[in-house]
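Priority: medium. Attachment 1 of 2:
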């Protein structure tokens, strides 16, 4: 678990998700916990240890720690349609797993979490962390991630589907690239392989 824990700590520090602030009686401070999990292959052999820092979102107060929590979720029918369209159009689909996706979503509310193991400031043990970005476990985390990814794609000349809000389309001359979002998994494909390569580089 040590290497996985170290990677997660590095990821959190690299994303600059919080700042240390003095604690006041008016703050609703949310506790956090580390969740450890083993990933196994088909033979049952452990291939990877995963560590994730999770906020105890059930302690959040509506109207204080969060407002909107809804995030569009792709339907199975939409995935089937994408597969059928790709098959008829004769282009490959690729899958991308966004690492630490929720740590990229900005929070709009003032959210404070207690100092978790690995992030204690021994000079200021009474302080708490004010979040700049979302943590796993927060009620609004999926929405904030979707909003940031959606803004990124729209700023790169993609158009959001009129019916399916998890589908993004970009046309470049006679070619087209389709991007389907499922939380932190992205399925994409294009009639021009270079558009796929450009998408990967941009992401």
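Attachment 2 of 2:
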């Amino acid at each position: 678990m040590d290497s996985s824990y170290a990677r997660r700590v590095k990821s959190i520090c690299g994303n600059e998700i919080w700042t240390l602030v003095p604690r006041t009686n008016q703050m609703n401070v949310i506790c956090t916990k580390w969740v450890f999990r083993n990933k196994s292959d088909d033979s049952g052999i452990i291939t990877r240890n995963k560590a994730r820092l999770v906020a105890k979102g059930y302690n959040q107060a509506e109207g204080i720690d969060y407002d909107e929590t809804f995030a569009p979720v792709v339907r199975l029918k939409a995935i089937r349609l994408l597969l059928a369209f790709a098959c008829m159009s004769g282009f490959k689909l690729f899958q991308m797993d966004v690492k630490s996706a929720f740590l990229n979503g900005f929070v709009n509310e003032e959210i404070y979490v207690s100092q978790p193991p690995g992030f204690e400031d021994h000079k200021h043990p009474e302080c708490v962390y004010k979040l700049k970005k979302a943590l796993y476990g927060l009620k609004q985390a999926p929405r904030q991630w979707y909003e940031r990814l959606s803004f990124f794609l729209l700023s790169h000349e993609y158009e959001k589907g009129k019916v399916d809000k998890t589908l993004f389309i970009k046309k470049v001359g006679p070619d087209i690239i389709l991007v389907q979002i499922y939380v932190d998994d992205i399925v994409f494909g294009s009639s021009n392989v270079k558009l796929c390569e450009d998408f990967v580089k941009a992401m």
